[in-house]
Design a protein that fits this description.
Two copies of one chain form a homodimer. With 384 residues, chain A is α/β, with parallel strands linked by helices. Chain A has a domain at 4-117 and 209-227: Thiolase/Chalcone synthase (Peroxisomal Thiolase, Chain A, domain 1, 3-Layer(aba) Sandwich), CATH 3.40.47. Helix content of chain A is 39%, strand content 18%. Chain A is built from 15 helices and eleven strands. Chain A has helices spanning 21-36, 53-57, 62-70, 86-99, 119-127, 132-136, 141-155, 160-174, 188-193, 221-227, 256-269, 286-295, 306-309, 326-330, 334-349, and strands at residues 4-11, 45-49, 76-81, 106-112, 196-198, 201-202, 212-220, 232-241, 278-280, 362-369, 374-382. In chain A, the strands form two sheets. In chain A, strands 3-2-4-7-1-8-11-10-9 form a nine-stranded mixed β-sheet, sandwiched between helices. The longest helix of chain A has 16 residues, at 21-36. Chain A is globular. Chain A starts with a strand and ends with a strand. The mean pLDDT of chain A is 96. Chains A and B meet through helix 3, strand 3, helix 4, strand 8 and helix 11 of A and helix 3, strand 3, helix 4 and strand 8 of B. Chains A, B: InterPro entries: Thiolase, Thiolase-like, Thiolase_C_2, Thiolase_N.
Chain lengths: 384, 384
């Protein structure tokens, strides 16, 4: 079967932006088309990954607006929402549109505009994805993260400092990402001395609230070289859910959605964790990067905390993780994040990652919706 | 290529329901699985068509909740939003999931809970899909319908009564649909004497605000017979956009999105309008059924108004349209409507439409988002 190629990628500056989501989407979309030398009128399908433009801005129908703004009149459009994994779900939708033969040229643009709302308001919109009983009891995603971190540290006798080292690493990477929200290093003392948010996690264990957009362009592998030599191929992709009610899980330190989605993606690709050279993981909270390292098969259960601590996942380590700076330093505009993960992997595999460049032929992106409520995993290979 | 089959279909009662959207979705989803004799744990992908659960109810993450409620733990889930065409877009997404090989068993459940909000509030949520400039000037979809109807009646010298005859026909059909919101006949005098909403259109030219859900189950055609003899096959499917700004259209009486989506679906199926035996059209407003009859190729431009007037689209006519009662009488829970259209076609093609049964081997469903902002068209065939 003809595989699906990525022939263009772009992202806007992430951070506090003075623009509505449709403007951010248009900015990323136009840049992506420009990079690939494709005119918007050639697009057959146009997907928008976005969780909550209606709740954040009172604006819906954003895919149709984007088709208008780009000049993609006629292209089929649709919004993909899978909460904080909307971007990864968008990659899956775009992949399906090409793999099914429905479209030979599909663009995905993910984006979210959040910073005009207070942190409390934005957190409340995000918390609306939880089970109503959890929500009524005041549970938010940060509180789940705090409880999970405490359990993990106790169960595996891991030092608190190991979580801080994830933040330190990702902030160091973000310095070299011109699109990142925070381009400054932080040290362990700063992380451990920052205000408590959900004990034992502190402010610097959490990603920020962010505005931004990212875009990817897809076509069948058989015609990718007609557009560019700098393309990558989706070798494997999969998605899966975990329990919607978090307390129903046997072991809260296992992300079952991550395990299941990875199994599908690995099987489809014929690759294993050992083949992966670089990864973008969903470090919405530092503890999540540790759990994903384990549940994706990179580390044994209970050993993932050593990764950043020992430099294994640093840019010059054996398995560079979140070379982009991750959600932690790059920022987390919900609908854009999963798209921006694949943007970073695409840049790495095509040797276009600038100061962040590592040596990699196979990359993996893991995007998490809610607290493992739904997960998508994408494995990319460099063009041969 | 293996085509995609529909092996199960269900819908809840449409109307004013004392249940939240996740309960409605679970009701339709469970009934659909039950009909096909499939256990929820077998589902590989689960799509939810829904425009605005966040805006209407303050609840997001509904696909994950549905996976939980049905016991479909592990199935990949995602929400599909294409405003009032979310249901049709969901059919397209579900089709792609099977056609791409990503899933061998996909369920789509569409639904919306709206009646707990006032008509003004619900209309405002829907109007948020329009261009901001249109929105700021107070344009809503009903007002577009009024202007378009006036232009059509003048341009083609069509009698006002011909629009009323669409409402009369669809209400007559709805009487025999046990799931319909309004199961009562109306006469021309009632329609023409009802309160003006957007001149020349009156209350009975408009569909109601509705709660409800509908579901469909999909698998590859090659294995459909293992589930049931009563399956249908998606012969063609396509989607397209029109201008996002309605006043930019050359001729407001032409639905360009309908024309383009139909062209894709007809080409894929190898069928033409002449092959279609029964159709479900998006009669959110009576004028829209007339325009779609023309832009789908059933009637010459300017002749569509004669269809209901002369009985051609009646249940005993040459081309029965909206045997379900249509959005007009069955109701229009945004995310459910496009799914319920395919439900009706599936029932007709499998000879399970009860009192509404017509003789049909090929059926077509046309679902419209916004005011032709995005359209999906699906053509189904009875199993051979």
């Amino acid at each position: 079967m003809d595989r699906v190629a990525v022939i263009g990628a772009s992202m806007t500056e992430f951070g506090q932006r003075d623009a509505w989501v449709r403007e951010l989407l248009a900015e990323a979309g136009a840049a992506c088309l420009d990079e690939a030398g494709v005119d918007a009128s050639e697009l057959e399908h146009l997907y928008v990954s976005n969780m909550a433009s209606g709740e954040f801005e009172g604006q819906t129908g954003v895919p149709n607006a984007l088709a208008h703004d780009l000049g993609a009149l006629g292209a089929y459009t649709q919004r993909v929402d899978q909460t904080s994994a909307s971007g990864g779900a968008g990659v899956y939708a775009a992949w399906q549109s090409v793999a099914s033969g429905a479209s030979d040229l599909t663009m995905l643009v993910g984006g979210e505009k959040m910073t005009h709302r207070t942190t409390a308001e934005a957190t409340d919109v995000i918390a609306s994805l939880t089970h109503p009983v959890e929500y009524k009891h005041g549970v938010t995603l940060p509180s789940f993260a705090g409880m999970t971190a405490r359990r993990y540290l106790e169960k595996y006798d891991a030092p608190r400092e190991s979580l801080a080292s994830v933040a330190v690493k990702n902030h160091a990477n973000g310095v070299d990402n011109p699109h990142a929200q925070f381009r400054k290093e932080v040290d362990e003392e700063t992380v451990l001395g920052s205000p408590i948010v959900a004990d034992p996690l502190r402010l610097y264990d959490f990603c920020p609230i962010t505005d931004g957009s990212a875009a990817l362009l897809f076509c069948p592998e058989s015609v990718a070289a007609e557009y560019t030599d700098d393309y990558t191929v989706i070798a494997g992709i999969g998605g899966a859910t975990d329990t919607h009610v978090v307390h129903e899980r046997d072991d809260p330190t296992v992300m079952g959605g991550v395990v299941d989605a990875a199994e599908i993606a690995y099987e489809m690709s014929g690759l294993t964790a050992a083949d992966v050279d670089v990864a973008e993981l969903h470090d919405m909270f530092t503890i999540l990067e540790v759990l994903q390292l384990e549940d994706l098969g990179f580390f044994e259960k209970g050993e993932g905390w050593k990764a950043a601590d020992e430099g294994i996942t640093a840019r010059d380590g054996d398995l560079p993780v979140n070379t982009s700076g991750g959600l932690k330093s790059k920022g987390h505009p919900l609908g854009a994040s999963g798209v921006a993960q694949v943007y970073e992997i695409h840049r790495q595999l095509t040797d276009n990652a600038g100061e962040r460049q590592v040596s990699a032929d196979v990359g993996l992106a893991c995007n998490v919706g809610g607290f493992d409520n739904c997960v998508t995993t994408t494995i990319l290979e460099a063009a041969e």
